[in-house]
Fold this protein.
Amino acid sequence: MEARRVQRLIEGGSVCLLALLWGGFAGATGNYYLKPHLGISMVQDNDFGQTGIAAPGAVGDGEYDNGWSAGLGVGYRYGNGWSAEIDWEYRTNDNDSLRFSDSTFFGEGNIASNIIYLNGYYHVELQDTRFRPFIGAGLGWVEEIDLDLESGGSERSYSGDGEMAWQVMAGVETEFAKDWRVQGELRYSQVSNVDLAEEGGSGRINGLDYGAWSVGVGLIYDF
């Protein structure tokens, strides 16, 4: 039942976002743009279940260092404050510590992700200033989430894909030259209830919630 509710929520959100981005802009005149972006990544602590890693029934707790994120977006500005884009984002954070309730401990490792998003933005035009605040939201498809656990010189890798992601954004941008803009952004993204399978083994991680904040800057070229 819960999985069905989540599926309906994702389907409904996808339809609403697509309608928001592509419907009702037939008369607008705008331009395409290219946006590389880079930021500081802060992954939230999380709890998760497992099989084949620690004692049966032991629960894991992950804590992560600050890392970095980078991506590339291609989008279209409609000329009325709205814009839509397809964006690829890579994120990576080292593990601070990852321990299980049976005292199994991994002191090193890394969590990383590749996610492709469909985003929508609304920019507010203000008088007497070159700065434009904006808000945005997006739905994404997880190409891969990978968690590496290292201890005593050995490493285990766990990965998964195909999950749905969502994110919200807010920030401010300004033009600094003809056809060029710079953008500062605060972003929160979430992938819920992720299951990861051990690469080359039978271990599993299940029920991991992958939530992350990022503070970043984007360089935008309009064409």
